[in-house]
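Homework-ish question, so no full write-ups if that breaks the rules, but can someone show me the predicted structure for this set?
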Amino acid sequence: MNSAVTSVHALVWREMRRNTLVIAALTAVIIETGLKSYSASGGAAGMIGLQPLLENPAVAALYGRISNLNTGGAFVVWKMGAVVVMMVAIWAALSATRLTRAHEDDGNWDIVVIGRRDRREVLRTTTLVLGEMGVVVAVAAGATMRAGGQSSSGSLYYALGILAIAWSGAVVGLLSAQIAAPRRAASQVALALVVVAFLVRVVADAGSSLEWLRQLSFFGWVEKIGAFDHVHAVSLLPALAGPLVCVGFVWWSQGRRDVGGALYTHADTAAPRSALLASPWTFAWRQRQSVWLWWSLGLAVFGAVLGYLTHALVALARSDASYRALLQHWGMGAMVTGVGFVAFASTVMSVVFTLLVVSWVSSVGADEVKGYLDVAFATGSRRATWMASVVATALLCVVVAAVATVVAMWCGVRLSGTDVAISTVAEAVAGSLALVPFMAGLSVWLVARAPRVAFAAGSVLVIVTYVAQILGPVLKWPRLVLEANPFHYLRTVPVNPFNVGGFVGVTLVGLVIGALGVWRYARRDLVS
Amino acid sequence: MTEFTLEIKDLVKDYASTRAVDHVNLTLRPGEILGFLGPNGAGKSTTLRLALGLLRPTSGTVRVRGHLAGSDEARAQVAYVAGDVALWPQLTGADTLTLLAALHGGSDEAYTRELVERFELDPRKRIRAYSKGNRQKVALIAAFATRAPVLLLDEPTSGLDPLMERVFRECMVEARERGQSVLLSSHMLSEVEHLCTRVAMIRSGQIVTVADIADLQSRVGAEFDVIGEVSDLGQVPGVSVLEELPDGVRVRVVGPPGPFFAALANRSVTAVHGREASLEEIFLSYYDGEATP
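A: Not a homework solution, just the prediction itself:
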């Protein structure tokens, strides 16, 4: 590499090194925790009860297909696999839109590309760094497996699978950046494509007649590699070569459009529309209209899929005593009835609801960093009012999304052939919102302290605390640690009564943290 | 009510070990346009952002018509234009003007429409589709249309073409005639010279001088090209030779010009061309260290 390319390479790496290390560490922690929980559950012997579950189409759709749980590696691939691959794919896709579309929007590379380096060279270097970032995460995944006592070959195939996911996610981001502008639109397209790819894999695994669909999704290609199961090394070829081919298309398409342009853009003009511009309260809603729409839609689809699994999973739990015992061990004993399953599924939804709040509130930090708030705060609104309006609309959005979820989940439950009243589903989903006020307060505090990283920090916190809540009791973590986790206070409503005391306590903590955040936010320097 | 619309007292702003603003004192009178000059990084934008309440002072105070900067009352009295305007990209120009007016608590709608025409802005375009100059126009229209008593403008014409600069100057004059006060930070010295009677100069966070432009001109002096026999002209009190010309000499005269003209009367001079120092020359003299503040 010549010195100019080296400089661009170093610059891009400098921008991405921190979040790459965070994702690598998070991947390692999830895998390590999964391996420990496998041992704590009795290893291969303890998994016998789960064996019938692997054949179940609904379970296969959700977790992916695997033929045995004889090793910790296989257990991690199955139990944690969806979380890890979705996290890595989304991270890679958003990193790609950030490094390409966001820099193009801001004109950051203009001064470079008019010099000795052209646009394609900068894109090539950026692509190279995205590839290297994937390698870092893959190495972390493989090394953690190996260090956890798993086989070398299994660990290697698993690492290669993670690498393929990271590369595929990055390519989805690169493609989206060519298709849509500005960055927000490109990121939404990228996220939608990742979710569609995942859903294609879900549908493909739901029945043998649809198995061919796996060829259409990079999640399907990676699943076919079969790390810690029946290894199918040939599947590495499309999984790793597919992204490289797509990169070629990205380079080709970039050369055929203007800097700042995209293959598809919204119209640059529109009729004036003064609706919802009268105050910070209404503008907070208008500004995020597409956000609540997409989140509500996504949550509804997720709720419907979970609801549709009800009958199959409940029937399995009823028919298999060892599986029931395992569910008890994992704290999921309630899943032996339709209501119990809905209650448990709703606690899973709580993660998405809290992520919605984090995303919504932390967008204030992003707006601040871009300088959008300067005039508003200098000549008009109070900062506290602005923040309050965003929090209020976040809560409203959660309610809207929750209603959509209730209806969709109930439809899914009914379609699966299970008789659960919609009021019961509503009760379960409402119970899953218990952490929303707390997370809103925490997000406010994060924006006040570190607006640039508020979203990343909040999201990581949600995922880590949720995983810790699942695995902490199995791993017999100290009571103090478990009780410090907000998810500890969530209950499988209505099977278990809503934890009023816990809700009040966690909400009060959230209110105090949020109030401190508002106080700080109103008094600190703006960072733009 | 204080006699000043903007009163900056002993203002200090530190960033870790760096002092960005160092005991700045500045006042703005009703109906005044005060030029705020200084090289890049001198502390102009930081001072303005402190006056807007976007930054918190390490010490000192800023008052807008008697109210502390950043308070509800102060925000209601000011309008602001940044040098690099950042606005929500998905909104159209018209939507942005509506929003900013609503956040400020209202604006003169008829004047807004007039300004949109005068600045030749297409309000149907989305912010992301505007050029830098057009984004600047949106911010300027929003600021002028509020009729706020105090305008804080930070490089407001960067990106504007000469025609629009002229419109801007007309709007500034109208604002002054209405009694609005303006703190105008700018590198466009001709613009400042045209609009301001008084300027403040800042260097390394410290105010170097605050004075009428006429006073500064007299301090720096006037330049004369003297054609003819000019020997020993540099010996005359208040006169310094700047440059030898082929048929004469260029001199600067500081202070009362009487001795200079008396000396010319005793010499065989065929022509004298004089002019006062421009603001640019004054600026350069301060920052090149030629003049004593």
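Now go work out the reasoning yourself. Hint: Chain B touches chain A at residues 49, 52-56, 72, 75, 78-80, 82, 84, 86-90, 92, 94-95, 98-100, 102-105, 122-126, 128-129, 139, 142-143, 146, 148, 152 (CB under 8 Å).
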